[in-house]
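Supplementary Text 2. Reproducibility record for the structural model of the 156-residue chain.

All settings were left at their defaults, and a single model was retained for analysis rather than an ensemble. We include the record here because the model underlies the residue-level annotations in Supplementary Table 4.
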Amino acid sequence: MKLAEALAQRADATRRVEQLRSRIVGSARYQEGEEPAENAVELLAETDAVIAGLESLVRRINRTNASATVGGARTLTDALARRDALRLQHSVVSTAADAAAGRDQRGAVRQLRSELKMFAALPVAALRTRADELAREIREIDVAIQRTNWEVDLLD
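Retained model, structure tokens:
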């Protein structure tokens, strides 16, 4: 199995656990004289089995990520950490540019000459350029990660 397939299975298992949780909550209590919609004990047992499979799958994914390389230079784990850091940095830089440009200030338009003027404390154009560079880096690393996910076999 390829790593990408395992990642899809992990997402499916996670969704399945959430669906089972919702069904368990809906069947955990019922009124006297009625029957619950589903057997909560059976749902809990099914959830345990799904979680056990998920745990095994996540262990294999983590082992694979730690040993597989992206572009022959760094591990997949390192590439994922770099992508997460770039995404966070992009978010901060974009938010800073928006704030300096006055995007999130409703009603902050000057009505009279006597009102206070607002100035940008940050270079908006430079921040937008930096955000564009970060977005490009994110796209490039994401493509490399996706390529690796489809090329690498999942470890046992």
